[in-house]
Every structure is written in structure tokens, then in C-alpha cells.
Design brief:
mainly beta, seven-stranded mixed beta sheet, 52% strand, 126 residues
């Protein structure tokens, strides 16, 4: 069992930055993949970035590549998403998630993840 809690969302102007945090607890040794996902009203939830907690490998959606960075701090049991050069299209509810099991490559598919936080809202507008 893994519990996840997101924080750090807010409202910013285009070009601004935010850092999202996700604290995790429970039997995290049962998972190797964690990720950030987002969902805008009326749209499908989509993968933003993933990280393999064992090896540190990361993946990013093309839409955020070069602007967002996923990282983790195991000492603080925290997952981060640094978001720079934010665009109005980034407006969404952001969720962190964890996948049960052991994998060498992390999926970015929503259906493959088992544990989810409640989300934190990010709004980018002028």
C-alpha cells in the first residue's frame, strides 16, 4: 500500500515557474515507477513525466520536454516536478502516481498505475 499527497500548485502567468511536490509513504519497495500526470476539463488524463525509482531513468511527454524536470529525494520521501516556461496549455489538475511492481522501463500510460494522489491545480493565464 502506497499513499501519495501532492502540493505546490497555484496560478502563474505564462513564462512563470512552479515546483510541485509529492510526498509518499507506505511500502514503496513494492514499486519502481512513479510519475506525474495531468488532466484538463473535458480531456483525457495524460502522462507528463515518469521516473524509475531504482535506476533514476526519466521520460517526458513531448509537450513538456525541455521545460519540466522530474526528480526525487528518497531521504525526504518526496517526488518533484519542476515546471518552467509555463504555457496556458499546461493548465490542468496534476496528479502523482505510483505503479505496483518492478520494471526496468516505466510506462506513461494512466491505466498502468495503481496508486494516485488527490491532485493539485495548476493554472497558467495572463
Amino acid at each position: 500500500q502506497v499513499q501519495l499527497v501532492e502540493s505546490g500548485g497555484g496560478s502563474v502567468h505564462p513564462g512563470g515557474s512552479l515546483r510541485l511536490s509529492c510526498t509518499y509513504s507506505g511500502k514503496t519497495y513494492t514499486t519502481t515507477c512513479m510519475g506525474w500526470f495531468r488532466q484538463a476539463p473535458g480531456k483525457e488524463r495524460e502522462g507528463v513525466a515518469t521516473i524509475n525509482t531504482a535506476g533514476g531513468r526519466t521520460t517526458y511527454a513531448d509537450s513538456v520536454k525541455g521545460r519540466f524536470t522530474i526528480s526525487q529525494d528518497n531521504a525526504k520521501n518526496t517526488l518533484y516536478l519542476q515546471m518552467n516556461s509555463l504555457k496556458p496549455e499546461d493548465t490542468a489538475m496534476y496528479y502523482c502516481a505510483a505503479r505496483l511492481g518492478w520494471y526496468s522501463t516505466c510506462s506513461s500510460a494512466v491505466k498502468d498505475y495503481n496508486y494516485w494522489g488527490q491532485g493539485t491545480q495548476v493554472t497558467v493565464s495572463s
